[in-house]
Amino acid sequence: MKEIIKDLNWRYATKKFDSTKKVSQEDLDTLLEATRLSASSYGLQPYHIFVVENSSLRERLKPHSWNQSQITDASHLIIFSNRNSFGEELVDNYLENVMETRGLSSDAIKGYSEFMKSKLMGLSDDDKSNWTSKQTYIALGNLMTVAASLKIDTCAMEGFEAEKYDEILGLENQNLSTTVVLAVGYRSRSDETQHLPKVRHSKEKLFTHL
């Protein structure tokens, strides 16, 4: 069996973290770099990610997270937030980076700029927010896979009050909304969930080959 499949079988949604164990700075840097390198639509990455280690801040977030222990016991809490809306600056800022990184002229990327804007600028604010929130899940999945390869435990969480998170993190004035939260650390020996067989659809049920 390929090593990555073994890693994915090893991982599970960790319910109890060992609060005495911390992810090393080196491993954290690897996780964050993998997240930075994640795919996103058009390469625009219309989101911002908060890496929370501060214990007092996490205690404030916990009551708005159904009092789940992962919020405070995990080594780090990674909060994904999406842009609520955007204008042409989203594309323009990205293409400035493209020109600088690849040594291209504005003429060389003009067609791509017009194409992206034609697809994105006509969206309603609700559609823009829906689209940007979906992008965060691509980065989330990549982070979780890399964490499994490093034998670092994770638990993706949607059980929280997004408006309260936005208020505590001051996102309301940053055109951002909390999308999903990832607890990162090491499983507690007392977490019985780790011993349960993994339940997934069979290949026959999940896939259709055409």
From TrEMBL:
<keyword id="KW-0288">FMN</keyword>
<keyword id="KW-0285">Flavoprotein</keyword>
<dbReference type="Pfam" id="PF00881">
    <property type="entry name" value="Nitroreductase"/>
</dbReference>
<keyword id="KW-0560">Oxidoreductase</keyword>
<feature type="domain" description="Nitroreductase">
    <location>
        <begin position="9"/>
        <end position="186"/>
    </location>
</feature>
<dbReference type="InterPro" id="IPR029479">
    <property type="entry name" value="Nitroreductase"/>
</dbReference>
<comment type="similarity">
    <text>Belongs to the nitroreductase family.</text>
</comment>
<keyword id="KW-0521">NADP</keyword>
<protein>
    <submittedName>
        <fullName>NAD(P)H-dependent oxidoreductase</fullName>
    </submittedName>
</protein>
<dbReference type="InterPro" id="IPR033878">
    <property type="entry name" value="NfsB-like"/>
</dbReference>
<dbReference type="InterPro" id="IPR000415">
    <property type="entry name" value="Nitroreductase-like"/>
</dbReference>
